[in-house]
Amino acid sequence: MYEIINGLHAWNRWFITIVLLVVLYKSFTGWKKKSIFEKADNTMSLVLMILCDLQLLGGLILYIWLSPQTQAAFNDFGAAMKNSASRFWAVEHIFGMVIAWVLIHIGRSQSKKAATDELKHKKLFIFTVIAFLIIMATIPWPGTAANRALLPF
C-alpha cells in the first residue's frame, strides 16, 4: 500500500506544479493587463485546489500510517530532530506543505470575493506565489537530506 500511495503522491506533485505554474502565469498577466477574470481562471484555480486537496490526503495517509520515515521518527522523536533527513519528513515537509495548502485555499477564496477582476487576479497571484515558494522549499529534492528522485519510477 505504501508504494501505491507514495507513487500517486509523487506523480500528483507534477500535476500540481504544472497547474500551479499556469495559475501563476494567468493570474500575473491578468493582474498586470487588467484582464477579465474568466471562467477558465476560476476553473484553473479550482483544479489546483482539488489537486492540492488530493495531495494533502495522500500525504496525511503516508505521514500518519504508511511512511517508514515518519514511523521511525515517531518512535524516537528526539533522535529524529537531530537527523536532518528524519526532521525533514517528521516536521519540515508536512509543515510547509500544509501552510502552502492553506494559502492555495485562501487565495482561491479571496479571489472569488474580490470586487474587481484586477483584484481577483492580484489576490490569486499573491497567495499562489507564496504557496509556490513554500512548496519549492519543502520538496525533497535530489541531493538534499531527504533525497528523493525527481521522477517516481
Summarize this entry quickly.
By secondary structure, the protein is mainly alpha-helical.
What are the SSEs and their pairings?
Blueprint: H1 2-33, H2 39-66, H3 68-75, H4 77-82, H5 84-113, H6 117-137
Helix pairs in contact: 1-2, 1-6, 2-3, 2-5, 3-5, 5-6
Fold and architecture overview:
- There is one protein chain.
- The chain has 153 residues and is mostly helical.
- It has one domain (2-137).
- 82% of the residues lie in helices and 0% in strands.
- The protein contains 6 helices and no strands.
- The radius of gyration is 17 Å and the shape is elongated.
- It starts with a helix and ends in a 16-residue tail after the last helix.
- The mean pLDDT is 96.
Order of helices and strands: HHHHHH
Number of helices: 6
Report the C-alpha radius of gyration, rounded.
17 Å
Number of strands: 0
SS-derived structural category: mainly alpha
Q: Return the domain count.
A: 1
> What shape does the CA trace take?
elongated
Task: Estimate the strand proportion.
Answer: under 5%
Average of per-residue pLDDT values: 96
Poorly predicted regions: none
The biggest beta sheet reads:
none
Q: Report the span from N to C terminus.
A: 16 Å
Helix percent reads over 70%
What labels describe this entry?
mainly alpha
